[in-house]
Every structure is written in structure tokens, then in C-alpha cells.
Write a structure and sequence with these properties.
Keywords: Monooxygenase, Oxidoreductase. The protein is α/β, with parallel strands linked by helices and 353 residues long. It is 40% helix and 23% strand. The two termini are 31 Å apart.
């Protein structure tokens, strides 16, 4: 089947859907509200299943060329003692390759380069999803956690939920030998090598919704984490007040469907999950490939969207539930020994590759 598709949102899922549909002979227009692709952003871990999705889109080789292999890492306590290790070799043996580290701008850039000029209309927010649908066979909502497409499909019946944690993240011009996370009581700090001389960092702290540190974000981060093991003090010393992002960690409870009529959701619009498993971008890429294959392979739109929903809703909602449970471990303030055992178990099995 061939047809026309409007994709709302030019992020990872939206650009990947556009590539898949164009390769299948569809006519595609991507509506992106931003003026252009981002020039800065934090790092992403691309797991083997998402790398295979990139291969199916024809950009896997470029991704491997521009990214870097994730080295072994560790989960530690604030004093530096090891809770558990991340054995990348085991992931490679299980799935055929390891995890690729790629910045969000790099991933978006290579996806955008695979599209014909004019496919993405920047500075083009969609204010009326229903009106847009009249001109296309399919409308794909790839517009993120605050999806207007989802609201048009389901109204206000499925609001986001606060996870109980506030997160800060950014990049810093400090090099670390390996990535990992350090877990304290109700808070954690993570680092990931992003490029030569650049480290991706993030922190999460259990807080009530709406909390703002009275002394300011950066001063609070240094108070909470500044006496933890090396190299975390050096990472925090290199952070500038204007170089960090702050947001409350929210997630989307399970939707009854990813489809309504000729509208369909992918990525965070469908299953926004907490970042605790690092799977948001990965699942968006897989969504995109499955949706494009369904629309190319079925004889009508309704059958194709039903097939996509049947293949993706269950796995992504299970992944989102796993992420919520992992996030709750980080909020533990007592019985941290029991928590550490759970962390070792979780790291041993990990999310599906």
C-alpha cells in the first residue's frame, strides 16, 4: 500500500518514520515547530535492537561510524564502592553487538540527511490536528511527551504522572574513562562518555512536585553530590549554571490504544517513559520501523495501524513499566542493601537488547 502521511514532530521517531515511509514509496511531510535541528544535546545509548532498526532504515552504518562503543561501566555507592558492573561484552555476546553512544544532535542529523530536501517543514507547529488529517491518509503523532496529537485523539483522559524525582542534565568538558551511575539515598548521579573531552552527565533527586532548591540548581547539585567519589566532583566543578537542563521526571500511563481512526502515535507521544532504562529513543526507532513496514505491507490503513498497535503497544508498555520500577529503586532512602541486591539483579538481565 502507498499513500500520504503527515508526521507531527521532527524528533527521533518522526524522522525515522519519514525515512521508512519514503523508502516504501509514500509521500511524507514532517511538521516540526522548531526552527531547525538542535546543535547541542546530551548523549543516547543505542541498544542492539535499535541499531537493527537503523539498519532497516539504511542509516545503521553511518550511525556506527559517528558513534562510539559504550565501554564497561559500574553502579557505585557514594564512597566509590561497586554495587554491580555493566558487562558490555555480555551484551555483545547475547545480541551480536554492544551499545552505541551517540549524541541526540548526531542521531537527528544522520536521520535528517537521509530525507529529501523539503520533507521536513521547520517552524511549522500544528495547531489543529483534525484539520491536518483531512489532507492525508495517515497522521503520525511523533510530538513527544506533551503530544498535541495524543490530546486530539484521547482528550485529557490520560494525563502524565509525576515520578517523584526531579532531574538535571547536561554536558561538560571533562573526560571520564567509563560511564556509570552512583546511587545514594533517594538520589543518583550518572556520567557517560560522549566524545573526546566531553562527558554527558545527569542527576536525579527525590523531591515533591514543584520543588526548586532555594540556593539555585547548581549550588544544590554541588551540595548533594560534591563529596561523592571521583570523578564526580570534577564533573560538577566544570558545570556552568547556564549549561544544565532541569525537569520533573514524568511518564505516561498505559494508553488503551496507539491508534484512533487514521491517527497513530509513536515514541514518547505513545509511551513516554522515565529515563531509567535509557530506552526512549531506542523504542521510538523500533516503533518507526514497525509502523512503516505495516503501512507498506497491509492492503488498507485500518489493517496496518491495527497491526502496528498489536505489535508495539504491549512491548513498549512493559518497557515503560520496567522503567518506572527502576526509577522507584532510586528513591529508596532506607534498606539500601536490599536495593543494591535488586540493582545487581536488574543489571545482570537488563532491558531487552
Amino acid at each position: 500500500m502507498r499513500g500520504s502521511a503527515a508526521v507531527i514532530g521532527g524528533g527521533v521517531g518522526g524522522l525515522a518514520v519519514a525515512i521508512g515511509l519514503l523508502r516504501a514509496g509514500w509521500t511524507v511531510t514532517v511538521f516540526e515547530r522548531a526552527a531547525g535541528l538542535p546543535e547541542a544535546g546530551t548523549g543516547l545509548g543505542i541498544w542492539p535492537s535499535a541499531l537493527r532498526a537503523l539498519d532497516q532504515l539504511g542509516v545503521g552504518a553511518v550511525a556506527r561510524e559517528r558513534g562510539r562503543a559504550q565501554p564497561d561501566g559500574a553502579m557505585r555507592r557514594p564512597d566509590g564502592s561497586v554495587i554491580a558492573t555493566l558487562d558490555v561484552g555480555r551484551i555483545r555476546r547475547r545480541h551480536g553487538e554492544g551499545v552505541l553512544l551517540l549524541s541526540r544532535p548526531a542521531l537527528l542529523g544522520l536521520l535528517a540527511q537521509a530525507l529529501a530536501a523539503g520533507t521536513v517543514r521547520f517552524s511549522s507547529p500544528v495547531r489543529d490536528v483534525a484539520a491536518l488529517a483531512d489532507g492525508y491518509d495517515v497522521v503520525v503523532g511523533a510530538d513527544g511527551i506533551g503530544s498535541a496529537t495524543r490530546a486530539a485523539m484521547f482528550g485529557a483522559r490520560h494525563p502524565l504522572r509525576y515520578s517523584g524525582m526531579t532531574a538535571w542534565r547536561g554536558t561538560v568538558a571533562v573526560e571520564v574513562p567509563a560511564g556509570g551511575e552512583t546511587w545514594g539515598r533517594g538520589r543518583k548521579f550518572g556520567v557517560t562518555p560522549q566524545a573526546a573531552g566531553v562527558t554527558n552527565w545527569y542527576a536525579a533527586v527525590t523531591t515533591p512536585s514543584g520543588y526548586r532548591p532555594p540556593e539555585g540548581d547548581l549550588a544544590a547539585l554541588r551540595r548533594w553530590f560534591g563529596d561523592w567519589h571521583d570523578p564526580l566532583p570534577a564533573v560538577l566543578a566544570g558545570v556552568e549554571a547556564g549549561g544544565l537542563l532541569r525537569h520533573e521526571v514524568r511518564y505516561l500511563p498505559a494508553l488503551p490504544s496507539y491508534v484512533r481512526g487514521r491517527s497513530v502515535l509513536v515514541g514518547d507521544a505513545a509511551h513516554a517513559m522515565t529515563p531509567d532504562l535509557g530506552q526512549g529513543a531506542c523504542q521510538a526507532l523500533i516503533d518507526a520501523v514497525v509502523l512503516a513496514q505495516a503501512l507498506a505491507g497491509e492492503s488498507d490503513v485500518a489493517s496496518a495501524l491495527a497491526r502496528y498497535d498489536g505489535l508495539r503497544r504491549g512491548p513498549t508498555q512493559r518497557m515503560a513499566a520496567m522503567a518506572v520500577r527502576a526509577g522507584r529503586l532510586a528513591q529508596v532512602r532506607r534498606f539500601t542493601g536490599v536495593r543494591d541486591v535488586a540493582l545487581r539483579w536488574a543489571l545482570a538481565f537488563g532491558p531487552p537488547g
